[in-house]
Amino acid sequence: MEVVLKWTKESTNIATPQQRSGNLTETALEVSKNNLTPSTSVSSHALVRGFSILLDIQYPFKRPMGALRYIESPTRQNIQRVVAQVLSISEIPGNPIWPMKSLSVRKGNTVYDVLGYPQDDIGSLLEDVLESEKLIKIECVY
């Protein structure tokens, strides 16, 4: 968990007796006082386990489809479920007639096969991708 401490500067105006009584003169003083108050902010990834992913779906005889989705639990099953939802929105049945050939995520020049990944939970893989990429892009080819 990442915690960042920031110190803020607060300015306080102190009115002189002339200012309080309504007599504004050139001798009125404005004093700036530095109050250091700590404020904390916590990284958004430290609190939330989910990921925002960009899906690139290539289906036979259709234009490539893209969708930006949020996945709370990064498992292979959940990603396949989200792909099926995107396909159903684009008028392709929830149980497509074409088998899924590949489901992969790219980190730099390396492509990781999500279908062949040893564990169903791919959270550690997605966290590793986020260290070098701004957005997780998952490619799905039917």
Describe the structure.
The protein contains four helices and seven strands. It has 142 residues and is α+β, with helices and mostly antiparallel strands. A hairpin with a 6-residue loop joins strand 3 (51-58) and strand 4 (65-71). The two termini are 39 Å apart.
The tally of strands reads 7
> What coarse outline follows from CA principal-axis ratios?
globular
Which fold does the CATH topology of the largest domain refer to?
Ubiquitin-like (UB roll)
Instruction: Supply the number of structural domains.
Output: 2
Share of helix among residues?
10-25%
Largest sheet: 5 strands, mixed
Q: What is the chain-wise order of helices and strands?
A: EHEHEEHEEHE
Helical region count? 4
Label the structural class.
Answer: alpha+beta
Low-confidence spans:
1-14, 24-37, 39-47
- CATH homologous superfamily caption of the largest domain: Phosphatidylinositol 3-kinase Catalytic Subunit, Chain A, domain 1
> Averaged pLDDT, please?
74
The separation of the N and C termini measures 39 Å
> Beta-strand level of the residues, as a percent range?
25-35%
Write out the strand line-up for the largest beta sheet, numbering strands in chain order: 4-3-7-5-6
Radius of gyration: 27 Å
In CATH, the architecture of the largest domain is Roll
State the name of the first-level CATH class of the largest domain.
Alpha Beta
